[in-house]
Design brief:
- This protein is mainly alpha-helical and 79 residues long.
- It has one domain.
- 51% of the residues lie in helices and 5% in strands.
- The chain has 4 helices and 2 strands.
- It has a two-stranded antiparallel ribbon with strand order 1-2.
- A hairpin with a 4-residue loop joins strand 1 and strand 2.
Length: 79
């Protein structure tokens, strides 16, 4: 399972990670739309993505392949 560790929190889901990243971006680079309809559609598509690729269950081949990839040491990510 991908985990995003920041100086403020440890985020365990794709949804939490995307929201955290989005909140820190300048307005012109935001990942999520600002309008309610666009946000609802984005959330629907992210849920579909998670369901179809197995992010929600942890059982997908994609998740297993990603989990086997080496990642940098936690301490090397903080400067």
């Amino acid at each position: 399972m991908p985990v995003l560790i920041t100086s403020e929190a440890t985020l365990y889901t794709m949804h939490e990670s995307l929201q955290s990243i989005d909140a820190r971006l300048p307005a012109e680079l935001r990942l999520y739309p600002r309008d309610e309809k666009g946000m609802a559609e984005t959330e629907r598509l992210l849920a579909l993505l998670a369901d179809k690729l197995g992010f929600a269950t942890g059982a997908s081949p994609l998740r297993q392949a990603a989990a086997s990839m080496p990642t940098p040491c936690k301490h090397s990510l903080h400067r």
